[in-house]
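Researcher: Following up on the earlier apo prediction. This time include the ligand. It's pyridoxal-5'-phosphate, with the SMILES given after the sequence.
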Amino acid sequence: MGFSTKAVHAGIEPDPTTGSIMTPVHLTSTYVQEELGVNKGYEYARVSNPTRTVLEKSIAELEGGKEGLAFGSGMAAITTLFMALKAGDHIIVSRDVYGGTYRLGKLVLNNFNLDFEFVDTTDLDILKKTIKSSTKMVFIETPTNPTMEITDLAGAAKICKAKKVISVVDNTFASPYLQRPLEYGIDIVMHSATKYLNGHSDMLGGLLVLNDAKMIEKLRFLQKSIGGIMSPFEAWMCIRGIKTLAVRMDRACNNAMEVASFLSRHRKVKKVNYPGLLSHPQHRLAQKQMSEFGGMISFDLGSLESAKKFLKRVKLCALAESLGGVETLISHPATMTHASVPADERNRIGVTDGLVRISVGIEDVKDIIADIKQALA
Ligand SMILES: Cc1ncc(COP(=O)(O)O)c(C=O)c1O
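Model: Understood. Below is the ligand-bound prediction.
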């Protein structure tokens, strides 16, 4: 079955009581039991909910995994995942990771003696050398937010398997339509469902997908124990969004390619980070492991002053955090998504004061480019 067919149908059955083709939103906190120990598979909504189950089945099928787990946000999913570790464990994370993931590791979970180290996972030799006896997890983002660095999925998975370390990929930027890390041997896929999966900037959610039965059991236990679950209504919004993932993503990728080409020719733009450009240092790798190059671009205007001016002048492109919606969003990572990362660290990884990030939407590309052109002028 092709991806677009799966996106529309995976996990979804007409409602058995009414035939409703749309999954009902099961707004209930509990379920009546027939007698002690006899129920219809649901006991309490923190543990499971039929609407959430449909989304969990859908994402598992789209990523090619056994089971999916849905959370209240991407950060709730990542937190639950890290809670599977123990004090003293060492976790390797891609250096140019989403600022919230950096903040969680460096400013929150380090207080519980989880030892986070941020390294350049695009260099597999560095990754291999950084793994030590206490390393229990490698958390990779690819493409990264916001400099669009690409890590070799098959290479990283092989290293982690050999060292018996759990490999995780934050697949938010690519979505399962463009990249399916489990197919390359990665153990766990994570998503901020808030972005491309929902696709309409109207909910928050997080997802995990994996195959290993023991780890599934552990994460299910943590999900109900910690309670950072996705609400039934948000699960429904995400189910609805996923049905159009393929068509939205195709359009966003085509638009992004044109916007990136335009930016790379503009004299005021110092650098463009987009894996679809031949100038991207890992263009070939991206071509190998992604079916298209995504809707995210970042580009450097050289200074905070220039970035500020540009962001004040865009009209169609909305100045806002987040990404992956149908509308083009534009942001300034250094002061917005990555404000928790210290300035020297930001500069080291290329998140400069002049860097602007665009989540290219599905509008007519000539309108997006016209807006960027007038703002740059
Ligand atoms: C790559 C990536 N991972 C994780 C997150 C966190 O997701 P959420 O905002 O749904 O908690 C984000 C949010 O922007 C993100 O961009």
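Model: Residues 122 and 151 are 4 Å apart (CA to CA).
Researcher: Noted. I'll compare it with the apo version next.
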